[in-house]
Amino acid sequence: MKPYISIIIPAWNEEGSIEHTLRHLQDHVDLMYNPGMRIEIIVVDDGSCDKTYEAAWPWADKLIKHDRRCGKGAAMQSGVAEARGDLLLFLDADLRATAGRALVLIEPLLRHEADMAIAKLPPPRTKAGFGLVKGLARRGIRRLSGYETEAPLSGQRAVRADRLRELGELRRGFGVEVALTIDAARRGLRIVELDVPITHRETGRDWHGFMHRGKQFAAVSLALLSRWKERKQLWYSSDRSSI
């Protein structure tokens, strides 16, 4: 039986990028098409204030719109709820001409070599932050799950739908990838990381960039704290049951 692939793209105020991303993605989907393979593209507009919805409409198979901004994790969860595929591919909305390259993440799942595949992106063209968010995420994932990752913040990842649903609802907000990696490693999912030449919008060392990374740092910290509390609760429950 040929696989059914659902590509889920959360988007917020991406009027300037979403059409380019979807158009190039569709071109690659057409190139990889083979009889029996089914692919759907799902865009979740997370309460955008611009014309993201209108720009995405001609290119998406399913288009979901939140009445208000709920966060990236909630947008991803809305996409999962509507997805019919047995393989899910999550992509950011600002990949533009490089979006189609992410389809390579499906291959380890098709070969039954992995349950989740995460894209390792090339280094940024210009120096942006100081690596604080990435370092925090890597250390937190290692300490809370034992998994050593090179791409702790990557939003480009493929996962088997049945294994994802075993993990429960995705964490809301921008710490979703960190929490997902921890949950997957704890539950024994086979994870691989692949070098994929994807590029997306970069933030610089200006006020906007520092504000973005500050919010990201807070989101990652909260995601790690939530998973630490869960592990502490499991330890407490285990100790109580042994009394």
What does this structure look like?
This protein is 42% helix and 16% strand. With 243 residues, the chain is of the alpha/beta class. α1 links the parallel β1 and β2.
Give a quick summary of the entry.
Belongs to the glycosyltransferase 2 family. The chain is an alpha/beta fold. It is 42% helix and 16% strand.
Quick tags:
243 residues; 7-stranded mixed β-sheet; 8 helices; 42% helix; 16% strand
Write the layout of secondary structure elements.
Blueprint: E1 4-11, H1 18-32, E2 38-45, H2 52-56, E3 62-65, H3 72-82, E4 87-90, H4 107-110, E5 116-120, H5 132-145, E6 157-160, H6 161-166, H7 176-186, E7 191-195, H8 207-241
Parallel strand pairs: 1-2, 1-4, 2-3, 5-7
Antiparallel strand pairs: 4-6, 5-6
Structural class based on helices, strands and sheet pairing = alpha/beta
Helix content: 40-55%
Question: Which strand order spans the largest sheet, edge to edge or round the barrel?
Answer: 3-2-1-4-6-5-7
Instruction: Please summarize the sheet with the most strands.
Output: 7 strands, mixed
Record field, number of beta strands: 7
Mean pLDDT: 88
Radius of gyration: 18 Å
Q: Could you tell me how far the N terminus lies from the C terminus, measured between alpha carbons in angstroms? A: 50 Å
Order of helices and strands: EHEHEHEHEHEHHEH
Q: How much beta, percentage-wise?
A: 15-25%
Q: Count of helical segments?
A: 8
Low-confidence stretches are none
Q: Any idea what the shape is?
A: globular
